[in-house]
Amino acid sequence: MKTLITPLLFLLCFFSLQGVAEVLPLEHFAKPAQFSNIKLSPNGEYFAATVPKEDTNVLIVVERKSKKRLIAYGFGHKEYIGDFYWGNNERLVYTKQYEVQGRERKFYRGEIFAANIDGSKRTQLYGYSQQGKSASKRGENAWGYIAQMLTNDDKHILILSSKWNTDRDSSDKIYKVNIYNKKRTRIATTPMGNISVVTNIDGIPVIAKGKNSEGETKRFFYTNGKWLEISKKDPLSDYSYKSLSNDGKLLYMSKAVNDGTSGLYQYNFDTKEIALLFNHPDVDINAYVRSPDSRNIVAVETMMDGMQYHYLDDSHFSKIHQQISASFPDADISIRANSIDDEEMIVKVITDKNPGDFYLYNQKKNTINYLLSAKPWIYPEQMKARKLIHFNARDGQKIYGYLTLPKANKTPHPLIVDVHGGPYGPQDKWHYNSSAQMWANNGFAVLQINFRGSGGYGKDFKKVAYLKRSTLIQEDIIDGTKWALALKNISDDKVCITGGSFGGYASLMSPLIEPELYKCAIPMYGAYDLLYQMKNADYMDGSSVSIGAMEKYGDNEEHWRKESPLTYIDKLQTPLMIVTGGRDKRVPPQSAFNLQEALDQRNSSYEWLYKPKEGHGFVNIENKIELYQKSLAFARKHMQ
Length: 640
Fold this sequence. Notes:
Keywords: Hydrolase
Helix content: 10-25%
Number of helices: 13
Protein name: S9 family peptidase
Organism: Shewanella hanedai (Alteromonas hanedai)
Pfam families: Peptidase_S9
Strand content: 35-45%
CATH superfamily of the domain at 384-638: Alpha/Beta hydrolase fold, catalytic domain
CATH class of the domain at 384-638: Alpha Beta
GO molecular function: serine-type endopeptidase activity
């Protein structure tokens, strides 16, 4: 354990590596982050951090003065500490997650715990527990979510409770829970499920927005213990609600400006005035920067060729953020502080070449010192820059994306078109990307396209692609591929397409539309048989979620058949390597089996990578390494 704690105890500096092999072990790109978070106690005397331990992790507390580890909290086999928070100087609040086969991400069952930093008074605050057979010992059959840490009350937190085995639209409950004795007081019951609630500094609801079971958007004020629906004629009815200032006078809201990119607005409860604070003409707001003392939004973050910050005031915290951001140009900066008066604050810095470094900022001394790295085996000087690109699609629409190039002395480069999932909402970002860096480290250029339907570029940009995943979106991908192949440093004919989820769908659909464009394709856990997928998807459950899905994907078999790659499989000329997991819940593996059967019936050759215990995305490190190895070999074989 000593080697894991050492980075927390000493202030280290970056150093350059000499004589390191250019091609790195694939394990470097397959391993998850070793450190995901580190937090400073309110009095600044302790660090808390999660660190890995075999097939689990532990939450450790280190006394800074003595460099002594006080405690290491953990759970059992394949059980993990999730989020954690300082409740006060002596007590931590944390959640429990599970590694579940078939799921790419760890699974949260709504369990919340608290414990003192000396190891005493460890208790479960909310959720189901396996510790006992009686109902009282098992706890609630409900999901618990930490809704708010109450800054003016260090003995309570706000928890949102959602019952198991009910539909997504059933009402939830909001509780104020004591972090020592787990006694709770019900604050409110939400007017419906699938709702976002903004609370004041005391945890009392103020305003909310959600969708009902018919898919209709509803908004509510919470007044005198009752929810009052906001009329569609009310000036506040067009917005999404972000947060409330501590004094309760300012409500921060967002909406698409003229159905384009997102704007940040401020509503003043005293004057009843709404003011537009920020809007970028080309991209949505990527993140908000809030002051820890007031909850005021002091800046917004946008993403183009790196991260840009747009400051809204000249407050003390705004100045701190500006100073730190200036020290790390273009980086994604997050500052974690318990109070604006804290002498020290934790700073996390992410770039296109760096998955994350943690620093300790001392505002009294005006110094910033390195603490540790999320992935200490990744050295930024060995990674490749992710360059912002744009091209015009066939109808003139400007499309953005990112191009990652390998070492420059070997041109022209073979090209990998790596298609992101979704397709509606997700986007490829400028941040460090393991897949892109893996391909670039092995000599391939990587193009990632934010086609229409992607998030980040406005409401119209996303909605125009609804019901067009087999047409408009594929045209954008194909147009981007042809644009890249025309570049001088890219080979004009050596290109392979790959991606997972919707990226897997596109990796089959685009070659069916343009049979001679791609030398090879590696579709991964994609929906190739849409008739089967739309009848068996986990999001088609009759709730407001499924109504939203039908708006995007269609609600009838005729449309699904038209958009299904299997409908056009006779046009296939491109060599395939099909990747799927046997426990995929989002896209059941039967879709891949149906594709396999169709290829076998046509005597079409293909390569097959099937892992029965994997889900929607490979999680096991050995399986991920095998996927990388076989993908590289397959691409090289067909792009010689």
